[in-house]
Amino acid sequence: MTGTDVPPTDPVPYTADEMMSVASARALADARCCFVGIGLPSTAANLARRTHAPGLVLVYESGALGAKPDRLPASIGDGILARTAVAVVSVPEVFNYWLQPGRIDVGFLGAAQLDRFANINTTVIGDYARPTVRLPGAGGAPEIAASCREVFIVLRQSARSFVRRLDFVTSVGHGGGGGDRARLGLPGAGPTLVITDLGVFRPDPQTRELTLTEVHPGVDVERVRAATGWDLKVAADLRTTPAPTDVELAALRQLARSLEAAPDPAREG
Amino acid sequence: MADIVSMAEAVAELVRDGDTVALEGFTHLIPMAAGREIIRQGRRDLTLVRMTPDLVYDQLIGAGCASKLVFSWGGNPGVGSLHRFRDAVEHGWPAPLALEEHSHAGMANRYVAGAAGLPFAVLRGYAGTDLATVTSTIKQITCPFTGEHLAAVPALNPDVTVIHAQRADRAGNVQLWGLVGVQKEAVLAARRTLVTVEEIVDELTPMPDAMVLPSWVVTAVAEVPGGAHPSYAQGYSERDNEFYAAWDAIARHRDSFQRWVREVVFA
After folding, report:
1. Pairwise CB contact (< 8 Å): A143 & B85
2. Cα A46 vs. chain centroid, distance in angstroms?
3. Which parts form a coiled-coil structure per UniProt (chain B) (predicted)?
4. Is A61 a catalytic residue?
5. What's the pLDDT score for residue B36?
6. Confidence class of residue A7 from pLDDT cuts 50, 70 and 90?
7. Can you point out the beta strands (E) in chain A?
8. What does the alpha-carbon distance between residue B94 and residue B62 come to, in Å, rounded to a whole number?
9. Which residues touch A246 (CB under 8 Å, ≥6 apart)?
10. Enclosing domain of residue B94
């Protein structure tokens, strides 16, 4: 088996979440440093360090620069981050000296809701003043999305998370489309990659609308459409994500075992 | 010079009804014991300021101490929701909670301005977000030198800031290390400050990357070993991740939370 073009009928020895984390880790092949959100982004960045990107510099908003944890951190302030970091700095310094001037290659974020231009909501479901669900809020994300050279987003995909219109714009992806980031004065390139449990999306070069460019093995386009709240654009040369290798899966499962005490880190915004 | 007192005396003296209160500590060194003391002393109508409300403010909000929250990320790190915070915002229980909501960068810079004695801070932030539309303390300004549009946020100057640190000497000089978050700025921005410490020592031996807050910017120091639990104090304790997970069930329902207040806070 080559790892590509797995027929959809094949039984898959991995979960959709594992495929999502492996695809996310692979995306960090060319990055030098990554500003890491907790949950799925942290899993991906730590998996990348354990597989193909051992030199990847992990930056956590708690002030750990170049953290090298030997297990998954339970939170962005886990003591293992400070103990293994090249340098530990204050929170104002992380944002003002390291993030804001554009020293970080990739900001890796999660999201509760995403729209077709990869804008992110992590604030409320429903009306802001009387929300149906009050979510955690912005954290570091608005400025990570603004100032990193590029942004990757990882989230589980459903019609509830991939929505036509966000209830609240917490962090700006491509705003209303092509040219909006420049108009808003946002220095970074914005989201260049969105990875879900179903596939991979990239913004159209002109319109900046998310386009499905890869489906994970065993997923068809109709399933992705059903889990998307807008009329989904699909790339003409749609590819299938190579399935996780045994090495990737072993490294990911070892990481997951290292954090069995903490339930579902993806629920953190 | 800082007074070395008991935590109960310090809270009674320094934290008053209606105050703007910041309990800081970014995941590490969260002054949890001081939060429970504020609940025991029945403070009301507080404006609570904190980047990450965490369990400490979930407890204060659920206990009815707060009327307003100034914050940037309100979740249970690694676990999920802060249910008391959500109940207050979604249902007004036990009392309505006004929100003043920022990003981390905005909150950090508000403390920086407060510490520096400036009226506001400037940052490249918030552009295009809805935060600027719901939060009146986010404004746009134009750089007088380059013409760039930037965000301005007003200084935070709490009536009282409370932090937890590893140790202090008998003169009240405070030493902390590891992830030091925004504590220096939060202390220097405040009118009054209380520092709880793991231990009071004769001499502060140097530690790598340690920060020292001189006694003359600290109002009171109280020795409270384990005062950050379930958060942690590097060199003294580990984060109790199991308690963070257990808090989800305690805080999920009003009954179980109120039982926790009765049986743990007022034990």
Report:
1. no
2. 13
3. none
4. yes
5. 98
6. low
7. 33-36, 57-59, 64-65, 87-88, 106-109, 113-114, 120-121, 124-126, 131-134, 150-154, 191-195, 199-203, 210-215, 233-240
8. 6
9. none
10. 3-102+156-265
Lowest mean pLDDT, pick from A26-35, B13-22, B42-51, B104-113? A26-35
**Cβ count within 10 A of residue B256:** 12
ipTM associated with this complex: 0.96
Query: What pLDDT, in 10s, does the model give residues B56-73?
Result: 999 999 999 999 999 999
**Residue of B155, B158, B149 whose CA lies nearest to B120:** B155
CA distance B197 to B220: 11
Q: How many CB atoms lie within 10 A of CB A9?
A: 6
- In total, chain A counts a number of residues equal to 269
Q: Which amino acid would we find at residue A149? A: R
Contact B79 A267 (CB under 8 A): yes
In a domain, B131, yes or no: no
- The CB density around residue B11, as the number of other CB atoms within 10 Å, is 26
- Residue A48 tokens read as 């990348």
Dmax (CA) for chain B in angstroms is 59
Domains of chain A, residue spans: 16-258
Give me the CATH topology for the region A16-258. Glutaconate Coenzyme A-transferase (3.40.1080)
| Number of domains, chain B | 1
Assess if residue B47 is contained within a domain: yes
Within-domain flag for B149: no
Q: How many residues does chain B have?
A: 267
Assigned domain for B219 exists:
yes
CA of A216 vs chain B CAs: smallest distance (Å): 27
Which CATH number does the domain housing residue B46 bear? 3.40.1080.10
Buried b (16+ CB within 10 A) or exposed e, A176-205: eebebbeebebebebbbbbbbbbbbbbbbe
Distance separating alpha carbons of residues A100 and A214, to the nearest angstrom:
32
Residues of B in contact with A117 (CB under 8 A): none
Strand-pair partners of B233: none
pLDDT tens string A122-178: 999 999 999 999 999 999 999 999 999 999 999 999 999 999 999 999 999 999 999
Give the contacts of A257 (CB within 8 A, at least 6 positions apart).
Answer: none
Q: Which amino acid is at B47?
A: T
